[in-house]
Design brief:
Radius of gyration: 28 Å
Strand order of the largest sheet: 1-2
Largest sheet: 2 strands, antiparallel
Number of domains: 2
Helix content: 55-70%
Structural class: mainly alpha
Number of strands: 2
Length: 108
C-alpha cells in the first residue's frame, strides 16, 4: 500500500477541494498495489470452480467437526507432527467405520 500525504494549505486553495478536502488537519491518499497473484486470488471466488468446491466443503467441514467434538481431535495425544498424523488417521478410520456400520444397519 502506498500512501501520499498532502499539504492542507494547498488543499484549501485547490479548485477541486469540494469533492476531496473535508477540512481536516491532514490529507492522505492511499493506493493499494496488487500483484498478478493477488488479482487472481480476488477473481477466484467468482469462478465456477470455487462454487463447486464450496458445495463439497460443507460435507467435509461436517465430518471435521464430528472428529473434533466427538472423537478427541481437539487435543493432540502424542508429541510431534508424526504423532498427530497417526492420531488424525486413526480418528478418520474410526469415523469411517462408524459410518459403514450405520449404512449396514440401514440396508438390513
Amino acid at each position: 500500500m502506498m500512501t501520499y500525504f498532502f499539504d492542507i494549505n494547498l488543499c484549501k486553495e485547490c479548485p477541486m477541494r469540494d469533492g476531496c478536502y473535508n477540512g481536516g488537519k491532514s490529507k492522505t491518499y492511499s493506493i493499494s498495489i496488487k500483484s498478478e497473484e493477488h488479482k487472481k486470488q480476488m477473481e477466484f471466488p467468482e469462478s465456477s470452480e470455487y462454487k463447486e468446491r464450496k458445495k463439497v466443503r460443507l460435507r467435509i467441514e461436517h465430518k471435521n467437526s464430528e472428529m473434533k467434538r466427538a472423537h478427541g481431535l481437539t487435543m493432540a495425544k502424542y508429541r510431534g507432527l508424526f504423532g498427530m498424523r497417526i492420531q488424525a488417521f486413526l480418528t478418520a478410520f474410526t469415523v469411517n467405520v462408524k459410518r459403514m456400520i450405520k449404512l449396514e444397519e440401514t440396508l438390513q
